[in-house]
Every structure is written in C-alpha cells, then in structure tokens.
Amino acid sequence: MPVKRCLTIGLFLIYTGSEAQVLGGRSVFNFLRFSHTPQLTALGGVNISQPSQDIGMAFDNPALFRPAMHGQLNAVFNDFYGGIKVFHLSFGYHHPKLNTDFTWGLNFFNYGSSTETDAGGNILGRFRPVDWVMQLGASRSYLEKWTYGATVKFISSNYGVYRSNGIAADVAVLFRDSTKLFSASFMVKNLGVQLKKYGNEREELPFDLQAGITRRLARAPFSFSITAQRLHQYNLQYNDTAFNNENGYRNNPAKFSLGKITDHLVLGATIHIHERVEVQAGYNFLRRRELNLGNAGNGLNGFSAGVSVFLGKLTMRYARSYYQAGSALNQVGFNLPLNRYFGLGKFGERVGW
Question: Distance between CA 199 and CA 70 in Å, rounded?
Fold first, then answer.
C-alpha cells in the first residue's frame, strides 16, 4: 500500500477519532495505557520511535517490528501496587513470502481476590477482578526507510457481575534513516468501541494520538527521544478550584501555559554502554504533575530508569518507575529467540541503527 494512501487513511482516523472519543479520565479500559515492557517503562512509559531488538516495543507500535525479531518471545512480570499482578507475553513472526511481519501479544491484570457485597453491605462471597487485552498486529516496509503497521485488539474486563469487552485498533507509520541515526513515528492508538457495556451507558476508549522522534549521536553512545502524547487534546489538566485551595494546589485559569504544553511530552534517553549492555532513563511530565501531592516533597515522581543485558540467546531487562516519593514500580522482562531453539526460521542479527 503506498504511503500516500496510508497517510490519507491515518488522517481520516485522526478526524473520526478526535470527534468520537471522550477526553480526559472519562474513558473505559484505561489499563490499555499501562507500559507493558521494561524498556518502554524505563523510557518514560510512552515511546514509539526507539529502534530496538525488543519485540515488546513492537507490541506497542507494530511499525517498530523488524524481520530480525522473527521468533522472539517477550515475557514480563510486574509486581504492582496493592498486590496487583500484571503479566505480559508477546511474540513476533516474519513471513518471507508475504513480506509481512506479525506480532501477537497478551496483557493480563490480576487484581487478586475481593469481597463481594450487596447494597446493604451483606457479604455475598468473593470474586477475582481481572482485565486483559489480546492483540494481533501486522507491518510491512515501504521503500528503504518507511514502515507502516496496524494492530487489532480484543479487550475484556471482568469485575464480578460487571463485565465488559471491546475492540480497538492502532495504526502507525515509521520513518527510519540508519545513516543519519534518526527515526520518527506517528501513531493512532485505541481507536475502537465498547461492545458490551458495564451498565446502561456505552463508554469511550482511551483514544490517543502520539508522535515521536529518536536521534542517536554519531560520535557518542547516546540516543535521545521525545514523544508527544494525547495530541488531540490541548488541555490535559483537570481544575477543581475548591479542591486545589484545600490541598495546596495552584489554580491556573490561564488559557495558555507552559505546563499545558509539557504535559504532552515524555523524554527518554539510552546509553549504549557496550554491545551487551544498555541503560535507559525517562521523564514523564504528565505523570509528575498528576501524581504530585500539593506542596509536599515528591522525590523522583515521574522519573524512570532501566537496564538491558544481552546474554547471547537471552536478553534480560529491568525497569523502575516512580509514582510517588519513596514508592516505585519494578518490572522484569526476558526476551528469548525461540527460533534458535525450535528452528522457526533464520535468526537475524541484532537490531540497531
């Protein structure tokens, strides 16, 4: 499919999505925003342009897939707050005859066991709330520097008697110039509909428009990324004057402010220490502002960091992201090239610039 046609479709999706989707925190299935793989978490939780050999990054943006990821399995384990367990699996496959790359993935959120009561407070038993999303993506290259891809997701949410599901799609295009060590991507995320409602009203999905660039320095082992999220909505701030006055927050009625611009931005950096070791770091402006506690000290809230170690047939990744002072999320993941063990085709070299 020509790039011109892809851009036309993308612009149509942008228009319809921005018209139809509810903004702010009023959407359903917000677990879709969760950063599922350590490298993405370490880069600030939002990054669609970082070249990588991690199939988990292609789960988030199908245009980041490369044939060298063929046969790779990514498994991630998260010990989230409140005893919440989050698991992620993704797998990549390159079909040479179709000249198409495929990705499959699953995110599963287990919230443990909770007591079920009626409106009068009578205990009816216990239930186990869960959320999960399963998706299938495909991507193809165009000429030498362009890649386009799309992902279809089935979403399910189960909170006892309250159950819901939906379907969504992501569409992305990536430009990558390996000679100039530069890449850029644009992505439409979570364009879809809630199929089964929790109650009487249908809710909208967490629609997002993202754009990002990554540049690696030619004579230094550093890569830098800047990603813009929620581009369809200028003001991401919720302003409750009474609440702000009671809790020490500043009221900001101005139509324009620097904070409203930076809320969209996520910064990321990678240090390529060695061919077998990389260190990532990130800063998420929106997370910092939303989770700050008034005038209290907020430590490293909004910051994240991680490390990737390449051990031949196994890659280990670890990330730590801060949500409050003295409180952080730890994430551990493993990348395993199954084709080296089960003969799923020729294994490509490490993906790099």
Answer: 42
Q: What is the DSSP letter of 76?
A: E
b/e burial code for range 121-157 (CB count within 10 A of at least 16 → b)? eeeeeebebebbbebebbbbbeeeeebbbbbebebbb
Task: Record the tokens describing residue 34, joined without a space.
Answer: 């969760």
How many alpha carbons fall within 13 Å on the CB side of residue 347?
A: 16
Give the helix ranges, DSSP H, for 116-254: 241-247
Contact partners, residue 200, CB within 8 Å, separation at least 6: none
Overall pTM > 0.90:
no
- Among candidate residues 160, 178, 187, the one with its CA nearest the CA of residue 14: 187
In angstroms, rounded to a whole number, what is the distance separating the alpha carbons of residues 344 and 348? Answer: 12
Distance CA 307, CA 281 (A): 9
pLDDT in tens, 165-198: 999 999 999 999 999 999 999 999 999 999 999 9
> Does 2.40.160.40 match the CATH number of domain 3-342?
yes
| Tokens coding 200 | 């009487």
What pLDDT score was predicted for residue 2?
45
Q: What is the pLDDT of residues 208-250, one digit of tens each?
A: 999 999 999 999 999 999 999 999 998 887 666 666 666 666 6
Q: Give which of 302, 351, 349 is closest to 325, Cα–Cα.
A: 302
- Boundaries of every domain in the chain: 3-342
Structure tokens at 201: 């009203």
The neighbour count for residue 9, using CB atoms within 10 Å, is 15
Q: What token pair was written down for 50?
A: 């970082």
Backbone angles phi, psi at 63, to 5 degrees: -70, -10
Which DSSP category does 198 fall into? S
To which residue do tokens 């390529």 refer?
A: 272
